[in-house]
TrEMBL record, chain A:
Every ABC transmembrane type-1 domain range: 116-325
Keywords: Cell membrane, Membrane, Transmembrane, Transmembrane helix, Transport
Family assignment from sequence similarity: Belongs to the binding-protein-dependent transport system permease family.
Predominant location: membrane
Membrane spanning stretches: 15-36, 122-143, 155-182, 260-282, 302-328
PROSITE patterns in the cross-refs: ABC_TM1 (PS50928)
Example GO biological process: transmembrane transport
Lineage top rank: taxon: Bacteria
Keyword Transmembrane helix set for record: yes
GO terms for cellular component: plasma membrane
Subcellular localization, as worded in the UniProt entry: Cell membrane
Name this polypeptide is given: ABC transporter permease
UniProtKB/TrEMBL annotation, chain C:
Naturally occurring in which organism (per UniProt): Streptomyces fructofermentans
Biased composition (Pro residues): 1-13
Protein name: ABC transporter ATP-binding protein
PANTHER family: D,D-DIPEPTIDE TRANSPORT ATP-BINDING PROTEIN DDPF-RELATED, TRANSPORT ATP-BINDING PROTEIN
Family, similarity comment: Belongs to the ABC transporter superfamily.
Region entry Disordered, spans: 1-28
Highest taxon, organism lineage: Bacteria
TrEMBL record, chain D:
Domain ABC transmembrane type-1, first and last residues per copy: 111-303
Record carries keyword Transmembrane: yes
Cited Gene3D superfamilies: MetI-like (1.10.3720.10)
Name of this chain's protein: Peptide ABC transporter permease
Superkingdom to which the source organism belongs: Bacteria
One Pfam family hit: OppC_N
PROSITE patterns: ABC_TM1
GO cellular component: plasma membrane
Predominant location category: membrane
Cell location: Cell membrane
Classification via SUPFAM superfamilies: MetI-like
Keyword Transcription among record annotations: no
Protein family: Belongs to the binding-protein-dependent transport system permease family.
Amino acid sequence: MADRFRGVPFVAKRLLGAALVLLVLATVLYALFYLVPGDPAQLACGERCSPAQVAQVRGQLGLDESAHAQYLHFLQGLFAGRDYSSGTSVQHCAAPCLGLSRQNDQQVTTLILAGLPATASLAFGAMVVWLTLGVGTGLLSALRRGGATERVLTVLTLAGTGTPVFILGLLLMMAVCAYLQWLPFPSYVPLTQDAEQWAWNMLLPWLTLGLFESAKYARLTRSSTLEVLAEDHIRTFRAYGVSERAVVTRHALRGALPPVIALSAIDLGSMMGGAMLTEQLFGIPGLGRLLIDSVRSVDLPVVVGVVLVIGTAVVVANAVADVLYALADRRVVLS
Amino acid sequence: ACSGPQDGDAKPAAGDAKPAKGGKLTVLNSDTQSDFDPARLYTSGGGNVPSLVFRTLTTRNREAGEAGTEVVPDLATDLGTPSENATVWTYTLKKGLKFEDGSPITSADVKYGVERSFAAELSGGAPYLRDWLIGGDSYQGPYKSGKGKKTLDSIETPDQRTIVFRLKKSVGDFPYLATQTQFTPVPRAQDTGTKYEEHPVSSGPYKVVRNTNDGERLQLERNPHWSEKLDDQRKAYPDTVDVRSGLDSAVINQRLSTSSGDDANAVTTDTNLGPAELAQIGQDKSLKARVGVGHFGYTNYLAFNPDVKPFDKPGVRQAISYAIGRSSVINAVGGSSLAEPATTFLPDQKAFGYTPYDHFPAGKNGNPEKAREALKKAGYKNGLTITLTHSTEEGEMGPKVASAIQQSLAKAGITVKLKGLEGNAYNEKRWDADGSPGLFITRWGADWPAGYPFLAPIFDGRQIVKDGANFNNAKLDDPAVNKEFDEISGLTDLDAAAKRWGALDSRIGEQALTVPLYHPVYQRLVGKNIRNVVISDWTGVLDISQVAVK
Amino acid sequence: MTPQPNGPTPDSAPVPVADTATGPTGDRAAGALIDVRGLTVDFPAGDESVRAVDGLSFRLSAGQALGIVGESGSGKSTVAAALLGLHHGTGARVSGSVEVDGIDVQAASVRELRRLRGGTAAMVFQDPLSSLDPYMAIGDQIAEVHRTHAPHVSRREARRHAVTVLDRVGIPDAARRSRSRPHEFSGGMRQRALIAMALACEPRVLVADEPTTALDVTVQAQILDLLHELRTETGMGLVLVSHDLGVVAGNVDDMLVMRNGRAVEHGPVGTVLAAPREAYTRELLAAVPRVETPRTPVATAGAVPASAPASGGDLLLEAVGVRREFGRGKNRTVAVDGVSLSVAQGETLGIVGESGSGKTTLGRMLVRLLEPSGGSVRHQGRELTGIRSDLQMVFQDPVSSLNPRRSVGESVADPLRAAGALTDAEITRRVRELLERVGLDPRWYHRYPHEFSGGQRQRVGIARALAPGPRLIVCDEPVSALDVTTRAQVLDLLAQLQRDLGLALVLIAHDLAVVRQASDRVAVMRRGVVVEEGPSDRVYDAPRDPYTKSLLAAVPVLDPVEAAARRAARGSVGALLGTAAG
Amino acid sequence: MTVQDVLTPGAGAPPAPGPAAGARGVWRRLRGRPSAVVSGAVLAVLLLAALAAPLLTALSGQDPYTYHDELVDSASGGAPQGSFGGMSGEHWLGVEPGTGRDLFARLVHGARVSLLVAAGATVLQVAIGVAVGLAAALGSRWADQVLSRVTDVMVALPMLVLAIALTTVVSDDFPRPLLLVLVMGSLNWGGTSRVVRAQALTLRGLDFVAAARLGGSRPVRVVRRELLPSLAAPVITYAAVLLPSNIVLEASLSFLGIGVRPPTPSWGQMLSTATTWFRADPLYVLLPSALLFVTVLAFTVLGDAVRTALDPREAGRLRVGTRKEKTRG
Ligand SMILES: Nc1ncnc2c1ncn2[C@@H]1O[C@H](COP(=O)(O)OP(=O)(O)OP(=O)(O)O)[C@@H](O)[C@H]1O
Ligand SMILES: Nc1ncnc2c1ncn2[C@@H]1O[C@H](COP(=O)(O)OP(=O)(O)OP(=O)(O)O)[C@@H](O)[C@H]1O
Ligand SMILES: [Mg+2]
Ligand SMILES: [Mg+2]
């Protein structure tokens, strides 16, 4: 088996390939949303806009052009930038310009950059929760297989998954903020503004999302741990008196982690698109909310922009996961 | 409200202690203030948060209940002087008005504010200026991108304090229109086009300190150049106002009811209590005391498109009107505390000219016998099958209401097939003059508490829009009715006008072009330290220019 | 670091010697290190159960060595596992008593067992290739085991200790290779790593289950000498499970011959070998191949005389200057460095050589499981570009070459099913025949790999390679885990197939006698190159290369006295061995 | 016996008794596990209830659509009258707030949609995911690149966005549940595919795969015979987790108005509308939650049992009943 391990060039190559696929994706989205009902100009202008006014707005948004002309302009913006009139002056949207939101004349890039920190805060924090909680309980239940501990853990993590996230979050909030009053109701504070406040206010969203996701990880960790535990090399360490805990955490876990890493990358990446319901519930001004709002208002530039950003995030996360994976299991070749 | 059994309007929640200045008011909202440009805002009576920053020529009377439906002067000294048969309206600005930077507010600033609302870049807002101002339909705003002239000649500013509007036709309602934020002064030198909303120049009691994330969070602070003496409407008790939006409505209500920490000083201007919350509050006296009830001119109704068979037959429309069981419709939207049955198209408030009528009495649960009779007369002895179009989104136009209607019509032998459309598709459909469904659920709200904006878009034959959003679903184009519209809308005596609007409503109602279902009622919860709760019938929302936290 | 194969480990603390003065025959002193009485082990299999060990008893004192021999599947590994209580919680039923260093293994608590394992008694497993953690560097694995029993030792010290023991078992460049992961090691290197792991704990008893099957004879001798030395110096007890009577002869005091889970003969090694009482023991002895015996030529039907060099027309497979590298930069290893070989139809080419010299790598390239990084492999004159089902391979590691989730019958049936020519019933019958042919009970069709002994698994591998009716089989240590009688049977089978079908074989093995017995030509490999190649009798009788000579000199002998003498001689040329292993 | 006998089939030995014990063995091992039997039974009951929904509701004399205005308290938000969410002899589990529809009827009818859609989507997701993951792991480097990138993008695509777009674009006459299955199934396979690819990459390097290839097995066969059995464990575990998340996803879609068309009930829909009621009418929330939870639990336990039963190495452990001995050997 060839051993072609290359870290950085590998990721770079990966990104390039992905850029292509993303472009295809953008095109498909463009086409698909063309068919979606709802006139963006009417929606932007408001329901009481007169036809003349709607036409004017349509011109302003460039919607009076043919579909492919619009798409070409979009591409042009992406690679070369575009200019837009802001009324009093002309605003330049530098490449990669994803266009202007049809709803509020903001540059899509600005909107995304504004939403990114909140979403990233949520996603990474939640990942820490689901990894510790999920992998932890997974391991514990693999260790205590068949015992009462395992049964309790199973039921607990399943309760997390079997409850839709909007119910889970609301229940948590009710319990912690309203009933026990341990924490004030969370309201998002940017990390850059006040790190401590940021953490306190993100605590519940992290927990909610983390809990919701952790069952999946617990199950996966448990099953692949058991899988590895049945392998021959585990026998070696047991036969050398290595404690069961060390056998599981040092040997079984390493073999069990690859699928967990693979999944984490996916979840982390796709969460960059925002865990919409969680963001909605806790009022976190992230990409998820931006996305769902723009889908509803057929704000194509924003939809495409956010999806492209998420796509990139997923690709990067997956590439990193693959590198980690190849590091864990050298038998695997990166290609 | 002049009818209904509700227990009066909201009283100050925290006993009789006098409200005092100071403190920080928190506003918890679900919709972000992503439009904060006065040119784009489409608010009734100047809005709530906006009216803390934007003053307009006139404004709504900041009093609770029915008194709140009156229009009163704001920047102007009076409600305006009509001349030339109410086609010319002249306003004079109060003396000593200043922007937040201390510069004087002039009539030119008001004119510029109106002009820029015509720019395509700043789309949004109500259509009336365009329809009424001379040259309004072709004017494209003061910006470079607009074609043609950069100024609108039908607005004149003979001096720094006087501004004159010249209209195409007589408009008695102009003082109402002047409450809208398009009448906010905007200093031309500081206009930054689409960026203006990030920091609009304040003429009101507060100025914007920070606008985070496109209106996600607005932090307001006292505007030192605003003078209490020149503004008899806004109380402006708190020192600062912090508007946080993008919150889930269940969370907002939960926070208000818990009222811990800053939430004790919190209100909401866009979230009302839902059915589940009401059911829960019903058992809690202390919470109940913190709930204010509000009305806003709104009617939810069934609309017909008589171009679609069998709705061309008045008998069929009448049968449906007879068969409708309003109480199950009301239950489907949250029960009697959140909706009152409607038999008139106009909201049940005096300002609209409400004249009670019930041309096709259906009682609470429908009158199947009368309905069958009407059907038989129309030639459908063995019942009939029709399609009801609704939105798939839960809510006032959603599937639950549709099912309720389906079941009450079934009793009269009318088989209803349901057709759900996703939100945007549904809106597109119901506003499509040619292709709107034969029968669908829809609603209408008032731009101001008067008959004209409530009735004209729905029943004035000249407001049938061919290739845009059409609201005259029945495509009623009756010369007599049209003439009546012209006559009443020219009246400057608003009370007299109201009476005639009521009569007109009743007259149109005889044709059974709509089936009024209910008028919504709003229940608003406030934090436990909030005093001076004022909910007017103009907006139905708690007026944050009046609340105090001390 | 210079290898010190015979010197004491600098880091090793002296092991307390409990019972030094026990004679080679083992007086029945109370302080026996191991005391096994009436050990019986049953495995559940299907609806019945298999009795793997049946009423076995033996004792072992400190410093003593016990050899367990016997046919494949006779229960040797099961006994070894029982000594460490490895049957706990596996579903096997164990009765009788097992006492190791005073601990009653059957009744021991989890904690006691943990101390016993590795601390008191260490085990070298029979399947070295899959017994290491694939995700972890070898040195770290050894260090971890070491630290388990010596918690006060720092991480870094343990790591250093690991390098030392790796060096002691003859891993060249131990400091660097300790950072490799198992898949980067050759079979023999992995086996040595396991032995190093056992030694790292300085145990009182070493249970070694076929510890040298994957080793070439020089390294084997070196390892066995090391064990001997530890035994005399520290009083370590040794249980040596092996099918190689030569290995047993030279390295144990007592010998236990097993068959069907029972002891057939038990006594001092000299006595048993010189004057076996039981017929079975005699049978075993008779079957041992001798390296001195020349090959009896295979009478190939109408084929070329075996000793003749392959002529063009009959050339089946040809390697021309094949090279293979692994890794890049600092970690680059050249496994095969320009080897040219040819195999004629019906011919057997033996490949012997140092462990880690690239035999497996070469074998894999011959069947195209690995792509050469240089040179080419030709099949009947044409460049070989992909896998062909008439080129088969028997893998060195019988564990990982069988799918743990499929019954062995199905694994063997697979090539038949893939070919798609036979009905289900025919396939089943055929598989049963094949199983029987390699000496397995055809009723075991539905058993899973983990239910088999090491030798049995190896035979399954052979049966599977035979199934598609190949023209050539690369056998990578096909008989290393087999007892002498079974081995003879399998070699006979291969020879018979060769005769009847003109099957060509590439036989990779460490056992020089086996290679001589079975091959027409032999290639000797060292460090990725072929150092000597020729007809086997020529190479064995008149070796030219010094490495070949040293290999032949290291072949174990059946006579314990002679073995001791040779060991003494080797001791004096220890330095030479050190380089030979490097 | 001659070698010829060995290599030519059909000669010698008696015909083989019985086929491979694979599937049968698994079945037998499953039957031996109480947890498997109980969870299987629970699922069977749920499934039966779903299938027999019309029958069951006929028994209770209710249907899931009829409004009962008289049973709700209009003045307080439409909460059911009486205690326990309006439970009575007629309405076994009470009624829905606001409409007074019978909850029992809605639950059993909802089970149909929820289980059907979720199970269908899961099957589709797993099938596509396994196929793509395997193709990526085993195919050429090119295929891996393309498929992995496509997987990335599938994963990256926010489900809801495409779901909204697709469900609004597709004709109204297309059966909704099927559309949901297709949309959910064809958009959400990225996770499975990644997990499968990761696992298959490790597996394909093992000797037994090499042996199978040498034996002349074509890739498809290698996959079916060698890889799938080893992949079954993670895939089944993953599927047992996917299923509940699909039920929840169906809930979210219904919540956004793009799920099954009301008034057809589904658990997801019931849950999402019930959320706010959990203090005023706890039963309304609890019932669908509890059912969902039981389903999830049953699937997980069954998935685990199947996973264990599939592993022959576990078999001895189970049958011999060494329960008392600690598993730490
Ligand atoms: N887990 C198991 N389940 C069922 N049978 C087993 C199991 N392990 C071993 N056996 C059977 O027990 C018998 C003895 O096996 P063991 O591994 O002890 O043999 P061995 O003497 O070491 O053979 P070899 O020399 O081939 O390694 C064999 O018949 C084998 O098939
Ligand atoms: N996948 C791999 N990655 C890195 N190095 C490898 C790999 N496979 C083999 N090697 C190295 O190549 C060399 C030759 O290995 P190979 O397995 O061919 O030896 P061998 O002759 O079969 O030895 P043995 O007799 O011990 O089995 C060894 O040094 C080994 O460490
Ligand atoms: Mg063995
Ligand atoms: Mg090898």
